Amino acid sequence: MSSTTTTAGTSFIDPFSATIDLAEGVMTDFTRRTERKASSMRGHYADASALERLVASGDPLHYEVFEKPVPEEYGHLMYCISKLYPGLVGEEYFMTKGHYHSILQTGEIYLCLRGSGFMLMKTKDGCFAAEKMERGRMVYVPPYWAHRSVNTGTESLVSFCAYNAEAGHNYGDIETEGFVKRVLKAGGVPVIR
Ligand code: F6R
Ligand code: ZN
After folding, report:
1. Mean of the pLDDT values across residues 38-54?
2. Ligand 1 pocket test: which of 37, 61, 65 has the largest number of ligand atoms within 8 Å of its C-beta?
3. Atom of ligand 1 nearest to the CA of 63
4. Protein residue whose Cα sits closest to atom 4 of ligand 1
5. DSSP for residue 99
6. CA-proximal residue: ligand 1, atom 2 (nearest)
7. pLDDT tens digits, residue range 95-119?
8. CATH dotted code for 19-186
9. Full-prediction pTM beyond 0.85?
10. Could you tell me the distance, in angstroms and rounded to a whole number, from the CA of residue 186 to the centre of ligand 2?
11. Which residues contact 92 (CB under 8 A, 6 or more apart)?
12. What would the mean pLDDT of 80-103 be, rounded to a whole number?
């Protein structure tokens, strides 16, 4: 470690790099992996019995997040690979839990590397937005907007995400508020309603 002038509250760390397998949609040298199976999605889908059938049939993986975490402090940038598998719960496409950042004034960038779907976003006072996600498309999630990704394709929806490392995640409010709209398969195509 070299010597430098640091500010209290922001740790000095050495530079590093990470390897991302763009074909598989994984960070190959991750040091933290979070997985969410169907059973961890209770309360989020409209068709609760369809989710229970999925849990009973082997509780498949819904999504994974790969990280090499940095200090959760002002000035650092957290980043990850988010890999959401394809599937349906009843008529509703597989999705992430979704969250507000605990520090609401922090945004996030998602760069979609693979697959297709939507980023659903909502604010505390009822605004709603949806942005298309597909390979090469970047979604800017501004401060104050909760965000949830939805996979409407037949392959994994993979994104690289970057955000303020001190942001934190507030899942509880989405569990109680829901997300305004859902993405459902209707007539064979995704419909947001
Ligand atoms: C981080 C972020 C993503 C998600 C990931 C899983 O702030 O938005 O890395 O954490 O896509 O989704 P959640 O966290 O909603 O389960
Ligand atoms: Zn986020």
Report:
1. 98
2. 65
3. 6
4. 82
5. B
6. 161
7. 999 999 999 999 999 999 999 999 9
8. 2.60.120.10
9. yes
10. 28
11. 45, 46, 47, 182, 183, 184, 185
12. 98
